[in-house]
Specification:
By secondary structure, the chain is mainly α. The chain is built from eleven helices and no strands.
């Protein structure tokens, strides 16, 4: 019973947002005036929305690619090799997970101002990398700790060089985890607001468009955009979770 009540408590705000995104009336009152998809059509036709989606997708794809590349290489180094202060290094690379995004955003804003880099989508991407790479390392560490590296040794004993071993042995085994963390990084970047707010220039991303609309009051259009963002984020998070659960050999 308590689990059901907790479940209702956690999901009721999301259900309300999705429900009222189909409200035929602009007034957010209950009972609703009827069902309509006109707010979704209004959002899709909005030039600001389309531009924000393009920017969000660009940043999320860039963040996802470089997060997986850098995070996987770092994870390989942390799991395969022993060196001095290894635990300290591991703690430091995972530290951003424990730091509030607000503090990360303010710190990066100060950093970009000090080194005279103008705020743009590039600075947003760099900032999202700082936020997402530790999550990639955390997930990949858990996967690589159960990786049977003797398979690589067996491949080399059979005559494969380093590149062939990686291409035909290591990469196929790691592929599900790599796809999973890539989707996770995409989802984290796509709906990140606080860090983006402090490190973006004149451009807009989808979370910033939603925030700007909320300043004028809650409308069905905001609910429609929020529902679309929710669908995208849930898809990538669930897909990442499903793929990451595939067992390594």
């Amino acid at each position: 019973m308590y689990c059901i009540l907790l479940f209702i408590f956690l999901l009721s705000p999301i259900v309300i947002i999705v429900l009222f995104s189909f409200n035929a009336s602009r007034a957010g009152s209950f009972p609703m005036a009827g069902l309509s998809i006109k707010w979704y059509l209004e959002v899709i036709k909005s030039a600001a929305f389309i531009s924000a989606v393009k920017n969000s997708v660009y940043v999320a794809i860039s963040t996802s690619f470089f997060s997986v590349l850098i995070g996987t290489l770092a994870s390989f180094g942390l799991t395969r090799y022993s060196f001095k202060f290894k635990n300290v290094v591991k703690l430091l690379v995972l530290l951003p997970i424990t730091i509030p995004p607000l503090l990360i955003g303010i710190s990066l804003l100060s950093y970009f101002n000090i080194i005279k880099i103008p705020l743009s989508l590039l600075t947003v991407t760099i900032s999202h990398l700082v936020f997402c790479i530790p999550f990639v390392i955390l997930v990949m560490n858990s996967r690589l700790e159960g990786f049977n590296f003797s398979i690589e040794e067996a491949a080399k004993d059979l005559g494969a060089n380093g590149l062939q071993t990686f291409r035909y042995v290591t990469f196929p085994i790691m592929r599900p985890s790599l796809i999973g963390v890539a989707m996770l990084a995409f989802a984290l970047s796509f709906d990140e607001f606080l860090i983006t707010f402090f490190t973006i220039g004149t451009d807009n991303t989808l979370p910033l468009v939603i925030w700007a609309m909320l300043r004028r009051g809650i409308s069905p259009s905001v609910n429609a955009i929020s529902t679309l963002v929710l669908i995208v984020s849930m898809f990538f998070i669930l897909a990442a979770n499903k793929i990451a659960r595939l067992k390594l050999l």
